[in-house]
Write a structure and sequence with these properties.
Helix 1 runs antiparallel to helix 2. The two termini are 22 Å apart. The protein is α+β, with helices and mostly antiparallel strands. The longest helix is centred in the N-terminal third of the chain and has 43 residues. The protein has 2 domains: 79 residues; 181 residues, Immunoglobulin-like (Sandwich). It contains 2 helices and 16 strands. Strands 2-8-7-4-5 form a 5-stranded mixed beta sheet, with no helix packed on it. A 5-stranded mixed beta sheet has the order 10-16-15-12-13, with no helix packed on it. Helices cover 26% and strands 34% of the residues.
């Protein structure tokens, strides 16, 4: 009976061992397919899963250092620059009208913006990745008077309802802008910031114009739009485009590339953890069984004495 019981016990433990081994293989294959699927979806740009962690809004405002308060300008195009918190989106306004946006880099920002004829009150707002705004910046007031175009009507200006937009790489990004003032028709030159040649586009009338572009690689790009009217008057608008996805650490914001490796890896760690445990358990079970049999034999021999 003892020999038969030992054989039955051995078969039972072998069945358990191979069942656990099969389960470990299934877990490993599951890890492989989940990794391969996630990689494939990321590369195709069809699905993007991103998580954000709640955080307090920015506490430090942007500080406009140029142009200076009270400055009288003779050029309708001005560079608005100053200090900011690195990584935040900076939006510049003139007389509460959106004049341009950029990503704060190295603790500074610089935006080329168009001024209104007359008084311009400038201010800058900062936003984090969650769209939370920081405190208001200082508000320098500058003066601009255009004698050249005063007889031709309102100055040419560009604006947009979007300071930044995001899209998956490979998909078409559509961006509406508004042309105001100047004299029809207009010509537009759009630099999308990704190293592609500037895009040319015409606009026969003032009003809304739709711009479109497809980014091939993930990254954050500074977009600059230059408009010229029939009289040679020029206006600028700067915005921030975002192509969703992970960006390599070595990539810059104007020349981004995806990782070159596209090989899915096997998730071997479940099997590597489970198999040694199974072997140890198998050995311990056998040792325990032998010890139990020896005790029974010893007890039987004692009873015969």
């Amino acid at each position: 009976m003892n020999s038969r019981s030992s054989a039955v016990e051995l078969k039972r433990r072998l069945r358990l061992f191979f069942a656990a081994l099969f389960a470990a293989c299934i877990v490993s294959l599951g890890g492989y397919y989940s990794s391969a699927s996630a990689l494939s979806m990321t590369q195709n740009g069809s699905i993007g899963l991103q998580g954000t962690v709640s955080s307090p809004p920015p506490t430090t405002p942007a500080n406009i250092t140029t142009p200076g308060n009270g400055q009288v300008l003779t050029n309708g195009l001005v560079t608005v620059g100053g200090q900011c918190t690195n990584g935040l989106l900076v939006e510049v306004f003139s007389n509460n009208v959106f004049a341009g946006s950029t990503k704060c880099s190295g603790g500074t920002f610089s935006i080329q913006a168009s001024l209104f004829n007359g008084t311009n009150q400038l201010d800058a707002k900062v936003y984090d990745a969650l769209g939370q705004s920081g405190p208001n910046s200082n508000t320098p007031i500058v003066q601009y008077s255009s004698a050249k175009f005063s007889s031709l009507g309102p100055l040419l200006t560009l604006s947009s309802i979007y300071a930044t937009q995001g899209i998956n790489p490979g998909n078409l990004l559509s961006w509406p802008i508004t042309i105001s003032g100047g004299s029809e028709p207009y010509s537009l030159s759009i630099n999308w910031g990704d190293g592609t040649p500037p895009q040319s586009q015409s606009a026969p009338f003032f009003g809304n114009v739709m711009l479109s572009h497809t980014y091939q690689n993930a990254g954050t790009y500074n977009i600059s739009v230059k408009a010229t009217d029939v009289n040679g008057e020029v206006a600028f608008l700067q915005m921030v485009g975002v192509a969703n996805g992970a960006v390599p650490q070595s990539a810059s914001t104007t020349n981004n590339s995806q990782p070159t490796s596209n090989t899915a890896y096997l998730e071997w760690w479940p099997a590597m953890v489970i198999l040694p445990l199974l072997l140890v358990a198998f050995w311990l079970g056998g040792a325990h069984r032998i010890t139990s049999l020896k005790k029974k034999l010893d007890n039987g021999n004692d009873n015969l004495k």
